[in-house]
Amino acid sequence: MKQTAAPVSDDGLKLSAWLPYRLFLVAAQVARPLESFYSETFGLSQAGWRILAVIAERDAANASEIGRACALDPFAVSRGIGQLADLGFAVRRPGKTDRRFAAVSITRSGRIAFNRIAALGSAIEARLLSRLSESERTALDSTLTRLEGESARIDAGGWRALLDDAATP
User: Fold this and answer.
1) How many CB atoms lie within 10 A of CB 61?
2) What is the pTM of this model?
């Protein structure tokens, strides 16, 4: 399959045609209404929402697991967990084997908030997907899975590896 890159102008790549930027714009445009909802309704930050979503899927998670799942730095994770605890949406419990590693769990009120936010998130997703045929949805899912894998490899390799790859004919 022929690969095509974003058009490059005399000054470099064209941002509006660059795939990562286009993906970012789609995500940002649909995240704004959701963010407004959870911020105005529950007083949640973006990090707080992401952490709430992670702990809603698990019985409990520690800060490092949450950070990996949410792609958040340790400071943002700590603030987000603190926010959830202050709102009564999560509780911290000392780890069973190592008390330094607290397990964070969702509370009943956190589950109620999550369900309300998730319902709006699902409506947004349904609206986006309604614009695609079933075969386009399948292709999109497959494509995103491949892009997620490659983006993880790019992230793990860092910019130096990218420059090394670009210099190799």
Assistant:
1) 23
2) 0.83
